[in-house]
Amino acid sequence: MLNSKKRDRRSFIKGSTALVAGMSLVSVGDLHAGTQYQQNDTFLVGPREGYTPRIGTLLSTMTMMRAMVMSQVQGLTVEQLDFLVDEQANSIGAMLLHLAATERYYQLNTFEGLSWGTWSSEIKQEWDVPMELGAPARQKIKGHTLDHYLSVLEEVRSQTMAEFAKRDDQWLEQQEPFFGGNPTNNHAKWFHVCEHESNHNGQIKFIKKRFSA
Length: 213
Fold this sequence. Notes:
Layout: H1 10-23, H2 53-73, H3 78-82, H4 92-110, H5 121-132, H6 135-140, H7 146-165, H8 169-172, E1 175-178, E2 182-185, H9 186-208
Antiparallel strand pairs: 1-2
Helix pairs in contact: 2-7, 2-9, 4-5, 4-7, 4-9
């Protein structure tokens, strides 16, 4: 993904250490006032410096959701990332790339104005397998370390953050027929990217409980 063999992942790993270390104190199913957390702004939803108010608030929501996913996958081995509950299941590793693929396609749709599925064959070759999951993903997405998946997720998210910084709150209101032809705006699309991660975070929790079953 994204020329992963050519990437130097050291900068990402260094930058993500603080987030993963902070989340190690957090039980994602135990988000209440009595829990001990490392001091950071992960759980503050609101405007962010460098972004217009509503875009910053949206980004903070996405950041909190991503932190929850990271807390679930930290420390997983290659074997655990490749684990399949049954012959029809998706692995945790494949789902992590699926999250990156989903975000990448929404980048193309909302930042570049491309109608869904009209991107180049090169992009489809890179991202369609993790986007669609299923049998092709079971065959092709395996044998990678956690650092590989986290690096792809971080690279895609960094691009989202850079593009958000170029836009204002009015951009969030831009509409087009989407989701079955219903009128939809950019805010709804990017909220979907966030809640989509929540859905797969639940699946990741389920799979982890089956490791020793």
